[in-house]
Hints:
The structure holds 2 protein chains of 2 kinds.
Chain A: E1 8-17, E2 20-30, E3 35-39, H1 46-53, E4 61-66, E5 76-79, H2 91-100, H3 127-138, E6 145-149, H4 157-170, E7 175-180, E8 193-195
Parallel strand pairs in A: 3-7, 3-8, 5-6, 6-7
Antiparallel strand pairs in A: 1-2, 1-4
Chain B: H1 16-41, H2 43-62, H3 70-81, H4 86-91, H5 94-102, H6 105-134, H7 139-155, H8 157-167, H9 172-189, H10 194-200, H11 214-240
Helix pairs in contact in B: 1-6, 2-3, 2-6, 3-7, 3-9, 5-11, 6-7, 6-11, 7-11, 8-9, 8-11
Amino acid sequence: MSATCPRLRAEALTVRRGRRVIVEGFDLDHGPGSVAWLVGENGGGKTTLLRVLAGLEPPAAGAVRHGAGGGPPPRRSYYHPDMRLPPGTRVSEWQAMVARLGLPEREVPGLTPPFAKPAVTAEQLSTGEEKRLILDAVLSNGRDHVFLDEPFEHLSPEGKALLADRLGRLARTRVVVVATNQAVPEELMGGPVVRLVPGEG
Amino acid sequence: MAMDASPSPSIRPPHPTASALAGALSRSWAFARIETARALRARVTLLGAGVFTLAHAVGRWQDAGSDGLFVLGYIAAWALAFGPGLSADRSLSFDRLLVLDLLSPLEYSVGKTAAMVAWIASLAAFAWTVAVLFSGGDVRFASWYTAMAALVALVLIAAVAAVDLLMGTRLPAAATLLLLMVVFVVLAALGMEGTAAFVRLGLVVTPYSYASLGPLLLRACVGVALTLVLVGMAAAARGWRAPRTKGAA
């Protein structure tokens, strides 16, 4: 984590996907203390807005600023549900690699369930187990700005509870923005909620 | 009691640049290890090893050519089994996971290239062992032909990476070989002698002369360097554009 205070500011933001306007004149000032939510059904533009807020895509108009002084590029974590481990990757080897990367927060109690067989490979995992392995690595990298796209998807109730707990702890010191089409966990309510509706411009 | 009057040596912290470089190399190495282990365990690698062994056994048994089909077997094994896995990483967004969250594009590129080189070295070590066994302990034969075949594979490493990135085929090495043959045929049709193209690629060699492998070695180094640049640029480009799920937004 950097010495500067993490902060996310969107100023007069216009985001488009193709011809469709997702948000126009959108302002957001979000810092540590709570989780910011982009919610709504699929097709509302959550992923596109999240990408713009993460600094991965330029907005059509307006500006996104990160950190106390503002300005890209942020030290960000970014998770997307399409991220998968290659077939043949052993869980034990993946966890050993993540440990060797020297991620700052790998000691934090993780989301990953213990596996009976260390030689189990990625394709033998359930989708939820694989997601938890990936989220564990993404959330351990100690970066100031955390952007997660549908992180609760495919997780078991236990996995969802563990993730909600982890996000709550992360949000104390980081900027955390989550896009989801699921219900916001009660314990994480209190932050800004941006509701995006499919088909509306 | 005598006292040492010399000033106590001060402990200098490591230079930040050196420390950052060591950290980057360590992360690349961690990635290269998992990549190499996965590639060597793949069924297609075992199949490639089997194809080489079979080809060389037949070559020895039939007394075919001066190399007992060593080169043909090696190329067949390489064409069948070698793949950087770049397109596979893309289809799984695994490259994005690594580049956006865990590694820099350069660390990804170094790790990926190191894993590719390690795979080629592993096939070379296997081929050397088989050649020594089949030749009754002819280390001179096994060493020279292994060095030559491995260098040819390294010369083509960047081309295979490019084919994998652009075509997304399951057999990028075989596709590269096919493209190379097409290029040779076209050059021949244009009136360029086949040997001229071979000379340019450093493929004209003298058996058992390590000096004649010099041009191949030079091109192999260029191939590895080009692979580093190519994979690094592709990874950097992928890191910038985050994935978009079909149907979701």
